Amino acid sequence: MVRILIVEHKKGELKHLRKPFESAGCSATNVTVTFLKDVQSALLNAEYDLILSDFRTPHFTGLELLQFLQSQPISTPVVFLSDGGENTKAGALSGQGALGIVPRTKAHIPDLPTTVLHLLYDSRFQRKETALQAHVAESERRYRMLFERAREGGCRFRRNRSLA
Question: Using the 8-state DSSP alphabet, how is residue 35 labeled?
């Protein structure tokens, strides 16, 4: 089950946003926030797979939320909800660590879980692919070292299987 922290500054919107996620089998926790410390408090009290947040709240913006999260030992990915005008900032926020910005219209709310989960799974796949590429590069480096030392007449291994 995917655990989602929904960050919203309007209490009336929470139920409206939570319902589609629960219908999709996600565990959605609503937090009404005023300040960034409220987000931090929620993240320290439970573990989440994703943060779904308003792009703009009365006291902080999406960029400020990303900067705040990067300054903390928190690696939970963030997807922002946009009322419209912020879509031009999506590229900049992706460069800052956001998974994306999704529209917050009545027509898009029913599809919100599908869109958000797609972004989450795509980012997980990319992280795994990057880790696999690093592992392959390290294996290639070790093989080259082994081959070069074998031409010199032999090689020794340490107990942890690394080349001596």
Answer: S
Q: The tokens of 111 are what?
A: 């599809």
Q: Exposed/middle/buried for 27, CB within 10 Å: 0-12, 13-18, 19+?
A: middle
- Average confidence (pLDDT) over 149-157: 64
- Per DSSP, what are the bridge partners of residue 102? 81
User: pLDDT tens digits for 134-144?
Assistant: 888 898 888 88
Q: Give the residue among 135, 141, 115 at the shortest CA–CA distance from 50.
A: 115
Q: Report whether 102 contacts 134 (CB < 8 A).
A: no
Total-model pTM: 0.66
DSSP of 115-164, one letter per residue? Answer: HHHHHHHHHHHHHHHHHHHHHHHHHHHHHHHHHHHHHTT---B-TTS-B-
Give the span between the Cα atoms of 44 and 125, in whole angstroms.
26
- Please give the structure tokens belonging to residue 113: 């879980």
Q: What is the average pLDDT across 98-108?
A: 75
